[in-house]
Amino acid sequence: xxxxxxxxxxxxxxxxxxxxxxxxxxxxxxxTRALVTSPDxxxxxxxxxSAIATKATGESAKAVLSRRDIEKAIAAIGPVEAESDxxxxxxxxxxxxxxxxxxxxxxxxxxxxxxxxxxxxxxxLGMDITLVxxxxxxxxxxxxxxxxxxxxxxxxxxxxxxxxxxxAEAHGRPVTAQEIIDRVQRGVPEGTAVRTGRVLxxxxxxxxxxxxxxxxxxxxxxxxxxxxVIWAILLGQTTLKGALAGFGSxxxxxxxxxxxxxxxxxxxxxxxxLQKVSSSVTDKRGWPxxxxxxxxxxxxxxxxxxxxxxxxxxxxxxxxxTNDGYLHVGTHQICIDAxxxxxxxxxxxxx
Amino acid sequence: MHANDNQFTQLRKGLLEFAIxxxxxxxxxxxxxxxxxxxxxxxxxxxxxxxPLLSRLKRExxxxxxxxxxxxxxxxxxxxxxxxxxxxxxxxxxxxHYLYTNxxxxxxxxxxxxTR
Lengths: 351, 116
Known about the structure:
The complex is a heterodimer. By secondary structure, chain A is α+β, with helices and mostly antiparallel strands. Helix content of chain A is 56%, strand content 7%. Chain A contains twelve helices and six strands. In chain B, 21% of the residues are buried. The mean pLDDT of chain B is 83. Chain B has one domain: Winged helix-like DNA-binding domain superfamily/Winged helix DNA-binding domain (Arc Repressor Mutant, subunit A, Orthogonal Bundle), CATH 1.10.10. Chain B is of the alpha+beta class. Chain B is built from four helices and three strands; from the N terminus they run H-E-H-H-E-E-H. Chain B has helices spanning 9-23, 31-38, 47-59, 83-115; strands spanning 29-30, 63-68, 76-81. In chain B, 59% of the residues lie in helices and 12% in strands. The chains are: A alpha+beta, B alpha+beta. The A-B interface holds A 10-12, 31, 35, 38-40, 43-44, 47-48, 50-51, 53-54, 57, 59, 76-83, 87-90, 177 and B 9-10, 13-14, 31, 46-49, 51-56, 58-59, 72-74, 77.
């Protein structure tokens, strides 16, 4: 059930549904602001309102205008810009001196990978979405999986941004006409994926797809291995040898993580590329939709790693002994209590 | 010709008013007519730009409009040039030729040769 709103556009009555009303009022609000210095503000607004109404109604005299109707009309009309006496320079932007819009926390499913929680957090904090995702994954490991609960709570508790105006609100930016235009035009264009997919033979696609899954599995295994190494380092049960053994655990964590990221990004990239050419099912960015099997594998690996960590935490801790002021790590001993380290040797190694 | 080259954006912006007055030179037009006339020219623009511009031209009394009832929707504003507007258009036209002649004299001949 949709609420409807009666509005007056350019002096004539129209009926909009609630969604459509939100988009329209945002657009008109922005138009009003853009024209605040113009002596013709009222007249231009009337013209724009009439134009929107005419376009949104189209040939058929629709009883209730939907968001799609309004968005199409707005897209056709484009952003309204006040005329300035000077000719605008390339650096002039309409929102240069505008106060930032207040942000609301939404999940943004259309921008997200799973439920849009990371996208929402990134939008709310103004952070890069990839960074937020990496942080979330790290937090899952650091909190022994508890973060998954936090994730789910956020996903359930926060409202989901569905309309263009809600998404804009999540990002704390006014709904720009351009944004609505982009959204309208995005549609489902025939992307490279579709065209390439058509050219490849069915066999070629299957082989590519299998390769992609193998690469995905490799990335999954690598993730599991990385998680295990991180865990081992955190417990002091370091398995790092040679040059790396000399570093402190903080540096080891950083190094291993950097290595992991350096390896896993090309792997995932390769997988998605292979998927892209083999799949005609794409998401809104033209990327393929990952087969459920790959997601399932990653989920299983994650659960296994977390389970392993919880089950073996005690046994792992036993490998790390502290007595006589030294931390024993394998054959390595590091002084952690200067008062007890009798001979003043900071670090020693036994064969 | 790269009519849509970004480097000429400012030039086109500056000439848009000239272009719009030109579209009104023959007969009265409403906004959709003007838009159609501008389609596929370097001056192709959106209503979002057109309405503010027309309102200003109206305020400066270069154009005026009549309300005309429409079969399909709300009444439409049909714009036409006023006498001042016609005079301005003639002036602009003249000035445009003056500019063009000057540019040509400044070395436009070279440019012409290279395109041959």
